């Protein structure tokens, strides 16, 4: 994107709140300096400008399809922290990363109302991560951890819902920063199916807590 065009863009109040949280977290981790906020805003506006070029125009009553972006971009923010707030490195990485298939699964805004998806899929408002990864998580959970699967079934709350939350937020607020970096690196180097294995591993780790809560 051309810098002049990007400067005409503006971030929504939701994105501004996300920027504040990201910068606060980055400073806590000693990864960012005082003036990192402007750099992150520039990265997010570049991403928005870039992704807009690959979006369909959809007429729909669904709120998620009327929005210009799919919520806050947690993946781009994670990369920004991994690059220690270096704007140029972050944008260069995202541009190259967008060519890989795994970007569809790790970087959720990448496929928001995208021209790369069938029209029927776009109009449904359901992200491919939900009906691909989340579906396989449900299947594996039933086979590997039947007690946890039953606990979710009894609660009336599907495991795929919480997994989509984890994946959308790149496990922020759920795992430590080192583990988040390992998760992103593992999916890039070993393939997007490791996103599924990661979720199953977390459920295995939480199994006793989940079963205890079910009893209570």
TrEMBL record:
This is BROMI protein. It comes from the Eukaryota. InterPro entries: BROMI_C, Rab-GAP_TBC_sf. It holds the Pfam family BROMI_C. Residues 1-215 form the BROMI C-terminal Rab TBC-like domain. The gene is Tbc1d32.
């Amino acid at each position: 994107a051309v810098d002049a065009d990007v400067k005409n863009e503006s971030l929504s109040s939701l994105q501004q709140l996300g920027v504040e949280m990201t910068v606060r977290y980055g400073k806590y981790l000693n990864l960012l300096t005082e003036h990192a906020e402007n750099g992150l805003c520039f990265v997010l506006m570049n991403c928005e400008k870039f992704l807009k070029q690959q979006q369909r125009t959809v007429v729909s009553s669904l709120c998620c399809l009327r929005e210009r972006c799919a919520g806050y971009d947690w993946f781009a923010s994670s990369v920004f922290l991994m690059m220690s707030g270096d704007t140029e490195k972050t944008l260069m990485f995202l541009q190259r990363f967008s060519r890989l298939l795994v970007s569809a699964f790790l970087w959720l805004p990448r496929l928001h109302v995208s021209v790369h998806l069938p029209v029927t899929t776009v109009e449904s408002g359901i992200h491919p991560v939900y009906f691909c990864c989340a579906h396989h998580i449900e299947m594996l959970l039933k086979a590997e951890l039947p007690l946890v699967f039953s606990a979710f079934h009894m609660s009336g709350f599907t495991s795929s819902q919480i997994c989509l939350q984890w994946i959308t937020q790149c496990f922020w607020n759920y795992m430590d920063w080192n583990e988040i970096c390992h998760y992103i690196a593992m999916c890039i180097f070993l393939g997007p199916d490791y996103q599924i294995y990661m979720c199953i591993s977390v459920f295995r780790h939480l199994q006793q807590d989940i079963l205890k809560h079910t009893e209570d």
